[in-house]
Specification:
Layout: E1 3-8, E2 11-20, E3 23-30, E4 38-43, H1 47-63, E5 67-69, H2 82-90, H3 95-107, H4 112-124, H5 129-152, E6 165-169, E7 174-182, H6 193-201, E8 211-218, E9 224-225, H7 227-236, E10 243-248, E11 260-261, E12 263-264, H8 267-271, E13 277-281, E14 285-286, E15 297-301, H9 307-314, E16 323-327, H10 339-346, E17 356-360, H11 365-373, E18 383-385, H12 393-401, E19 411-413, H13 421-427, E20 433-435, E21 443-444, E22 450-451
């Protein structure tokens, strides 16, 4: 619970408040006599009302000279062996290397060594309660660091599954983490993304982090800005990072996709050489010259792909790429990329591992179908996703006519387009699995004209 204190005569008083759904809980008392503290609850009709009432009550207490007390992040022994860590950066799932490091840490008197041994034992016998208890005991000081970080940086989230900070532990170190913040959640807070991410990555337990997800990050103005992420990662250079998911939120229930900005991502390519999976979601991003020698999967979900970003994707250096998914979007939301910008990608012969290709949410889906039919990539593609766009039966017929060139195709996804039964018949037998999905119907204006649209724009 956020805690506020003030000196009243010779006594130091405290006041704590928290919201759980639509219920506000307040705890008051004297510092040092917490056992005698009083607790009261106030129930409102909705969670957002509880959040507004919580802010009002805090402002009232601040006028009474109560001051927020922020918990300090407990120190960590921070013992390190650069040679052993280097081996884990190269092979983060190497259990033998982790156990050797654990033995070395124990010899230095660092409790993280015991944690590595206990977590390894628990992985071999996950139902042994004694091992669960031992891991929790050994992990307690590191969990305290995480709780202090959440409180100190005002992280808040609207539900337990997607809010605040979530981590998954490996052997002695955090393997993956998800950070999220929603100013409009029931907990008070306005976390700064750059400061929070920097503080998190500075924790010794994050030294070998392999996966990082940044969820919804909304400030008091309702904006979702992620530009600080690339700047922080460029400065910190997390050495073991394999997977980055930037802007993991549900749209439109949490926020519109066009209301987010990912910023300049070009600094990432030089500092994350081991990155294997990258997922980007938002209204706009500057990709720069992409050089990702280890990347296996790249996915960009947007309602407005800029022409410069499409050209960057088409020319990217990622020789190990196996999966590529690109959403195009609508010109009204910055989606000025067209077939001309992505055409060079279809002619490339230097992506031998590429098997999954998604060119989705495009207004020019029919043109894409015709270009794909004669492309250099067509014979190697096993999964082709052309959903969410404006494909008509003409596009489907172009794909069907390219049957000889799509010999390796085993799955085709064309849901959320404008296809009729003729298209279904034409595509039948093109590959073992056809995901026809639901199809859209044109919007008819009062004058009788039809309007077609991509599935994701705003």
């Amino acid at each position: 619970m956020p805690r506020y204190e003030k000196l009243s005569g010779k006594k130091r008083l405290f006041w704590e408040i928290a919201a759980e759904g639509a219920v506000i809980r307040i705890r008051t008392g004297e510092v040092g006599a917490e056992a005698k503290a009083k607790t009261e609850k106030k129930k409102l009709d909705y969670a957002y009302q509880a959040g507004m009432e919580m802010r009002r009550l805090i402002q009232a207490q601040e006028k009474k000279k109560f001051v927020r007390v922020r918990e300090e992040i407990p120190p960590d022994p921070g013992t390190r062996n650069e040679e052993l860590e280097a081996a884990l950066r190269e092979e983060p799932d190497n259990t033998d290397a982790a156990l050797v490091y654990g033995d070395w840490l124990q010899a230095q008197g660092d409790p993280r060594g015991e944690l590595i041994a206990a977590q390894h034992a628990l992985a071999l016998a996950p139902r042994r309660k004694s091992l669960v208890d031992e891991v929790l005991r050994l992990r307690a000081p590191y969990d305290a660091q995480l709780r202090a970080l959440v409180e100190r940086h005002d992280l808040s989230g609207h539900d337990a599954k997607r809010g605040r900070l979530q981590v998954v532990w490996g052997l002695g170190f955090m393997r993956s983490a998800r950070l999220a913040h929603d100013y409009f959640a029931t907990d008070l807070g306005d976390a700064d993304l750059g400061e929070t991410l920097s503080a998190f990555l500075a924790l010794p337990s994050a030294r070998l982090l392999q996966e990082l997800t940044i969820g919804l990050w909304r400030d008091a103005d309702g904006q979702c800005e992620y530009g600080d992420v690339a700047e922080v990662l460029a400065r910190v250079r997390p050495p073991a990072l394999r997977k980055l998911h930037l802007a993991d939120f549900e749209y439109p229930s949490e926020t519109e996709i066009s209301w987010t900005e990912l910023g300049d991502l070009e600094p990432l390519w030089a500092v994350l050489p081991r990155l294997r999976e990258l997922v980007l979601q938002g209204g706009g991003a500057a990709l720069g010259a992409i050089r990702a020698p280890s990347l296996r999967s790249f996915e960009l979900r947007t309602g407005g792909l800029a022409a410069a970003s499409a050209r960057a994707i088409a020319a990217a250096e990622w020789p190990e790429l196996e999966r590529l998914v690109v959403w195009f979007g609508d010109p009204q939301y910055g989606g000025d990329a067209g077939l001309d910008e992505i055409q060079p990608l279809l002619g490339r012969r230097d992506l031998p591992r590429l098997r999954h290709l998604g060119l989705m949410n495009a207004r020019f889906e029919d043109d894409l179908c015709r270009a794909l039919a004669s492309s250099a990539l067509a014979p190697q593609i096993e999964v082709l996703d052309l959903s969410l766009g404006m494909m008509s039966d003409a596009g489907a017929e172009a794909l069907a006519a390219a049957r000889p060139r799509l010999g390796r195709l085993r799955e085709l996804r064309v849901g959320q387009n404008y296809l009729g039964e003729g298209a279904r018949r034409a595509l039948r037998g093109l590959c073992p699995k056809l995901d026809f999905g639901e199809q859209k119907t044109p919007y008819v204006w009062q004058d009788g004209s039809e309007h077609r649209y991509v599935s994701v724009s705003e």
